[in-house]
Specification:
473 residues; alpha/beta; Rossmann fold; four-stranded antiparallel sheet; 13 helices; 17 strands; 19% strand; elongated
């Protein structure tokens, strides 16, 4: 419909736009499949320029060098060579090949005036146990729509599960999980010789990405929820193990309450400055004393410092309460229960700045049990019974983004999801596996002597003749 002179004027512009578009598409292919393109170019050059015999010789040489690399330096081979090959193969044969069909069947496309708007597949990185797939959403979409289809996307791409993570406005990153890197227990490290411990980065385990799991104790409180056998004991002893150098130097003091009669904290009471083995008056007295200590420190720090530091002269205090619900909810004496609740609330609401941290462990996260979960800025969900409990512990909507703490198998105690205030995404990790031998070593490290052995001697069951002789005697 345009006049000829207009077409003549616009033709160079159209040609330039077309060349830019072709260059952009070529750049995308080169960026996404560099290894495949290099191999194809080299193969074509060697076959067409040197002949089939040289092509076979070069191919055999390349395979031999790769085999030698794998044999001599397997770690570097698996670090540099395998991920690149795996990434390009999975991007092309798994995601790019099925992307359009999966988006349509999952109802994640939009139609307007006969034109289909489809989410764009971005960068893919295969790490063996998971694939990281970046996606640009269609205009008007929300991450919640993808969260509703997470299970279907996982099955469509042959993954065990799919997690949705927001990178920036309009951009998502999908984690397609294929295996569990935390299936094996993680041994504890050697006890450190240095007495300086960073209370903002206390290493208690390892995340699923292979990085250390570090808990912040200074300026926060930690709530850990999990069913019986989920590994809560390993968490508290991992914390004590990491703090051992500071405990030995007197910079950190631990106080404990174990309403189960010492079944957990009684394994190594020497770690604690004071430990109570019930939920009665002694436990309440300890809690009220700590609440008064928080107020005393706050008054002494007024006008001098805003946060506890080692230079204050006061040791950092960590209160460990195993089965917190027994202290603040299951106590039959209403007076003791109310006093304990008020004391714990005072410590958790005012103890961050004065250097007092509460590590609470319980099994039931309902508001009827603990109505002040919001005062614990770090929350850890170990194996749980019900899906609704995940959001109770970690926050609303976290379970839809992939934090399936209710699906943690019984065979992996110590696996947990860790959520900190101010961070949208939780971390999946596993704490160190602390055995009785490690507790004996910990007590010896702190006291200079071995803990008392509680193991009993096993004797043979008496035979019938022995029983008759014993009866006659």
């Amino acid at each position: 419909m345009l006049p000829g002179w207009v077409k003549l004027v616009l033709s160079p512009v159209a040609a330039l736009v077309l060349l830019c578009w072709l260059g952009y598409q070529l750049g995308r292919v080169v960026y996404r499949y560099p290894l495949s393109l290099i191999l194809l170019v080299v193969a074509w050059w060697s076959y067409s320029g040197l002949g089939p015999w040289w092509f076979c010789a070069l191919l055999a040489l390349l395979l031999g060098l790769l085999a030698l690399w794998w044999w001599k330096h397997r770690a570097s081979f698996e670090r540099f060579a395998v991920p690149r090959v795996r990434t390009e193969c999975r991007r092309f044969f798994v995601y790019a090949w099925e992307w359009r069909s999966v988006m349509r069947l999952s109802e994640l496309t939009k139609d307007k005036r006969g034109r289909e708007y489809r989410p764009k597949l971005g960068r893919v990185r295969a790490e063996g146990w998971r694939d990281l797939v970046r996606v640009r959403m269609v205009k008007g979409q929300a991450p919640e729509q993808w969260e509703l289809h997470a299970s279907g996307l996982a099955h469509a791409f042959n993954a065990e599960s799919c997690r949705i993570r927001v990178r920036k406005p309009g951009r998502l990153e999908l984690d397609f999980i294929h295996s569990d890197p935390l299936a094996r227990s993680i041994p504890v490290p050697e006890l450190a010789e240095e007495s300086v411990v960073d209370l903002r980065r206390v290493t208690v385990g390892r995340t699923e990405t292979g990085r250390p799991l570090r808990l912040q104790l200074l300026g926060t409180h930690v709530l850990t929820v999990g069913v019986s056998g989920a590994g809560k004991g390993s968490l508290l002893w991992s914390v004590a193990w990491a703090l051992a150098p500071a405990i030995k130097a007197g910079r950190v003091k631990l106080f404990g309450i174990d309403p189960k009669g010492g079944m957990e904290l009684g394994q190594a009471p020497e770690v604690f400055e004071r430990v109570v083995y019930d939920n009665g008056s002694h436990a309440v007295t300890l809690l009220e004393w700590l609440a008064q200590e928080v107020k005393r420190r706050a008054e002494s720090y007024r006008g001098r410092r805003r946060m506890w530091t080692p230079e204050s002269g006061d040791p950092f205090i960590l209160l460990v309460v195993d089965e917190l619900a027994d202290v603040i909810a299951y106590q039959t004496d209403k007076n003791l229960r109310d006093r304990a609740t008020r004391a714990v609330q005072a410590i958790t609401s005012q103890g961050r700045a004065p250097g007092v941290c509460v590590l609470g462990l319980l099994q039931d996260p309902r508001k009827e049990i603990i109505a002040f979960r919001h005062l614990f800025s770090t929350r850890i969900a170990m194996r749980l019974d019900e899906p609704a409990q995940v959001d109770m512990v970690l926050g609303d909507g976290v379970r839809k983004r992939g934090a399936a703490a209710h699906e943690i198998p019984e065979s992996t105690p110590g696996v947990a999801w860790v959520k900190e205030d101010g961070k949208r995404e939780p971390l999946r990790a596993r704490v160190f596996h602390v055995t009785d031998d490690h507790l004996t070593q910990l007590v010896g490290y702190l006291t200079g002597r071995s803990a008392l052995s509680t193991s009993a001697e096993i004797v043979d069951f008496p035979t019938g003749v022995d029983q008759q002789r014993g009866g006659a005697a």
